[in-house]
Design goal:
elongated
């Protein structure tokens, strides 16, 4: 007996909406990580501050403050990774109760096809799974950064001091990039939930997530503060 390919159960508007959300997710990440020279993103600005941090780290004594900062960054990634695992578990449990989901959809006069509902939940879970992987990798990279920081000589005159500090800064920036990618996936996972309401709803939600992310990266008050020059 031949079974239909799952995506064949989706309507053309649903497929177009799915592609549109994926395009917005990818496009937002590309714009943030490759901003135009005339409009630098907050992520790039913070990367420069991370390099300055490592330069200051060479001459700072004691270095307890720096250790606390890197530890707080690791705790943040661990928190979001745990939250993603819980959300994924809840999503998988929902898929296992397709009958209840179908009944709820009928009550709300939504798409009652259980397979379609499951596909839409899997779409959300895909974003959450990507976020989990990014957070786990960011957590590990921040651990690498702490080891590199510990290897920076206490003597600023040591020829290895600034070289190792620069290495630590680049690993720190890479970890932050992975962390930011995880956050973007969470934004779009929330937007993807609107797919349960239909293709128009998820497209609007994806557009809203895109606008929020781009505004915070390119037109936020925090960005203006970071760009202020010393008087």
């Amino acid at each position: 007996m031949m079974y239909p390919f799952p995506l064949q159960s989706l309507s053309v508007p649903d497929l177009l909406a799915c592609i549109a959300v994926l395009a917005m997710w990818w496009g937002t990440g590309f714009a943030v990580e490759h901003p135009p020279a005339s409009r630098i993103s907050v992520s790039r600005l913070v990367g420069d501050y991370r390099r300055d941090w490592m330069k200051q780290f060479v001459t700072r004594s004691p270095r307890i403050f720096d250790a606390n900062v890197i530890d707080s960054l690791r705790q943040g990634t661990a928190f979001f990774a745990s939250a993603c695992m819980l959300a994924i578990g809840g999503g998988v449990a929902l898929i296992g109760n397709a009958a209840q989901l179908q009944g709820l959809a009928q009550d709300l006069t939504l798409e009652a096809n259980s397979l379609v509902i499951e596909l839409k939940i899997i779409f959300v879970l895909a974003f959450l799974a990507n976020a989990l992987l990014k957070f786990v990798w960011a957590h590990r990279l921040f651990g690498y950064c702490s080891i590199l920081m510990a290897a920076v000589p206490n003597d600023p005159a040591d020829p290895l001091a600034y070289h190792r500090a620069e290495q630590a800064a680049e690993i720190n920036i890479t970890a932050a990039k992975s962390f930011n990618r995880g956050l973007r996936s969470i934004y779009f996972a929330l937007a993807a939930l609107a797919w349960l309401l239909g293709p128009i709803a998820v497209t609007v939600a994806g557009l809203a997530a895109t606008i929020v992310l781009l505004r915070r990266e390119f037109a936020s008050q925090s960005r203006e503060v970071m760009l202020r020059r010393q008087p």
